[in-house]
Amino acid sequence: MTILDGKALAQRIQGELTEQSAAFFAATGLKPCLATVLVGADPASAVYVRSKRRACARLGFESRHHELGPETSQQELEALIDALNADDGVHGILVQLPLPKALDADAIIDRLDPAKDVDGFHPTNVGLLALKKPRFVSCTPAGVMRLLEESGIDPQGKRATVVGRSAIVGLPAALLLTHAHATVRITHSRTPREDLEAAVREAEILVVAVGRPGFVPGEWVRPGAVVIDVGINRLAPEPGQERGRLVGDVDFDGAVEHAGAITPVPGGVGPMTITMLMHNTLEAARQRVG
Ligand code: GUN
């Protein structure tokens, strides 16, 4: 049984990206530049944005941060996006989601210059991925594929089941696995439980991204399967604890009894997501400079 150590892999790839950003600077006099946009006061979003900005600093990227209040209007946010699109010094733009409910997130994503959409959320980038001509791929599924590749796991000819159908994780993960020649089943929170169980039991590669702790019982995991747990769920604190534990969507203790390889939570997919954001930002900078 192998624990797929996303944290260690992310550190190695970030080391390579640090060298590549230094080489980019030596060749162009420019640092890859990521603009981060945080609207409102969601504490989890603030934590995510801070860790993305720290990654920029660590890798020798420039980060320009824009923080807007919870009452920001659609027009104000659109004006900021327009300004960042027009700014030649900005290579990638990241609008942290979720946005406050009063704002239309789809309209904001549509407004991004697809060439700066390092999250891979813009319809143009989603469409290019669907057509097997990927430019910027959503960072979490891209990180999942890189983790498989670097772990010597080839999806070709394998039965893969994806649990979750979000535009950001489940659907692009299913597309990427299909492009890698796996035979892919997509299931989700409304798949009847017995169908879900059957699909999980047949999976040689299982990717779970539904955001519900323990959604997949460990005993469903096929012997020898590769289990990629994308969920990051914080449990209620136990007595005497200040904060609850972080757990994935798969019952980890049960799954390790059957899996051939499994990602831990934390320290599995999470660190790979930020790494792929940095990868996409460097790529955006290279494409802009030509
Ligand atoms: N919110 C949760 N995950 C993400 C992500 O990958 N990108 C952005 N922009 N917002 C998120």
Describe the structure concisely for a colleague.
The protein is built from ten helices and eleven strands. The chain is an alpha/beta fold and 290 residues long.
Molecular shape:
globular
Bound molecules: guanine
> Radius of gyration, Cα only, in angstroms?
19 Å
DSSP, total strands = 11
CATH homology group of the largest domain: NAD(P)-binding Rossmann-like Domain
User: What's the architecture of the largest domain in CATH terms?
Assistant: 3-Layer(aba) Sandwich
Summarize the biggest pleated sheet. Answer: 6 strands, parallel
Q: Helical amount among residues, as a percent range?
A: 40-55%
CATH topology descriptor of the largest domain: Rossmann fold
* Name of the CATH first level of the largest domain: Alpha Beta
- Read across the widest sheet, the strand sequence of neighbours is 1-11-8-7-5-6
Total helical elements:
10
Q: Determine the N-to-C terminus distance.
A: 44 Å
Percent in strands:
15-25%
Task: Describe the protein.
α1 (6-28) runs parallel beside α10, α2 packs across α10 and α6 packs across α10. A 6-stranded parallel beta sheet has the order 1-11-8-7-5-6, with helices on both faces. Strands 3-2-4 form a 3-stranded parallel beta sheet, with helices on both faces. Strands 9-10 form a two-stranded antiparallel sheet. The chain has helices at 6-28, 43-59, 74-86, 105-111, 123-130, 139-150, 170-179, 193-201, 252-255, 269-289; strands at 2-3, 33-39, 62-68, 92-95, 159-163, 183-187, 205-208, 226-229, 233-234, 246-247, 261-262. By secondary structure, it is of the alpha/beta class. The chain has 10 helices and 11 strands. β2 (33-39), α2 and β3 (62-68) form a beta-alpha-beta unit. It is globular, with a radius of gyration of 19 Å. It has 2 domains: 29-116, Leucine Dehydrogenase, chain A, domain 1 (Rossmann fold, 3-Layer(aba) Sandwich); 139-270, Rossmann fold, CATH 3.40.50. The site of guanine has 6 residues, from β4.
